[in-house]
Structure formats: structure tokens, C-alpha cells
Amino acid sequence: MSKPAREVAIAILYQSDKILLQLRDDIPTIVYPGVWGMFGGHIEPMETPLETMKRELLEEIGYVPTSLYEFGTYGTEEVVRHVFHGPLEVGLEQLILGEGWDMELVSRGDIIAGQAYSKQAGMLKAIGEPHRLILLDFLQA
After folding, report:
1. Which of 39, 82, 88, 106 maximizes the CB count within 10 A of its CB?
2. Cα 44 to chain centroid, rounded
3. What ranges in 11-141 are assigned the alpha helix state H?
4. Helix or strand or coil: residue 98?
5. Is 137 exposed, middle or buried (CB count within 10 Å of its CB: 0-12, 13-18, 19+)?
6. Which residues lie across from 126 on neighbouring strands?
7. Which pLDDT tens digit goes with each residue over 65-124?
8. Which Pfam families match (predicted)?
9. Which helix (H) or strand (E) holds 67?
């Protein structure tokens, strides 16, 4: 008997024509180490995906948009991703990175190419494929 898929909530935060991504810590024991992804995290018992999204954004960047909208749900046998989107209404300098190695507003071209430059790492880093595919769907919507 297989264990149920874990559920997470993730956010597409946009400003102008760019999307805010988090460079995950480069720790081999975490999922997708050292790659760009969206901010978010695991849904706790008795929490709705939206409650999770707001909690995770506060924990990870100290910011929650005034509006968050459901974009869709992407599921595999291992994980169900509840995806939200909303505007980033403040500058990067007002965010406090509480989790991850770096954060950056990345362009459509970066997302299509599957990589973006990290000032902290001093190099191009890959965008995690599951998140990249979701972002491509979002950009086409």
C-alpha cells in the first residue's frame, strides 16, 4: 500500500513582467537542492491551502500580497501542488529572505530557458522542472 501524496501550497508572485523565485538551499537532503522554485511549503493538518500559502509567505519572505488567487492544482503520485498567484506590491529590498539561498525577479526568457542568474551563488542556476512547467502554464494563461 502506497502512502498518500504530500500536499503543498506554492505561490506565483509577479511584478511587472517578472516572477519572484526562491533559490533553494544547496543541501543534498532537501527536495530540489540548489535550484530555483516558487515560495511555499507543506500543508499542515487542519490548514487550508490558502492558509498554508499565507503562513509560508510570511515565514519565507515576511510578505503576503493583498490578494491571492487560485491558479490550479498539479498532482503526481508523490506530491499535490496547490498553486496560487498574486501581485508583488513591494520592492525586493522590503522582503526578508527567511528561507533559501537567494531570491530574484526572473523574466519570461529565464523561465523559458530554464535557468536564472543568482547574485548569491554568482552563477546561473536551474529552475526546478516541476515549477518551470507550472510557470510556463501561467505565462500562457
Report:
1. 39
2. 17
3. 49-61, 108-113, 129-140
4. coil
5. middle
6. 115
7. 999 999 999 999 999 999 999 999 999 999 999 999 999 999 999 999 999 999 999 999
8. NUDIX
9. none
Q: Residue 98 is placed in which grid cell?
A: 527567511
Phi and psi (nearest 5°) for 131? -70, -40
Which residue is listed with cell 515549477?
131
pTM summary value: 0.94
Grouping H, G, I as helix, E, B as strand and the rest as coil, residue 53 is helix
How far apart are alpha carbons 21 and 74 in whole angstroms? 18
Domain boundaries, the chain: 6-140
Total count of residues recorded for the chain: 141
Distances (CA, A) of 34 to 31, 74, 116, 131, 135: 9, 22, 12, 14, 18
**Which fold, 6-140?**
Nucleoside Triphosphate Pyrophosphohydrolase (3.90.79)
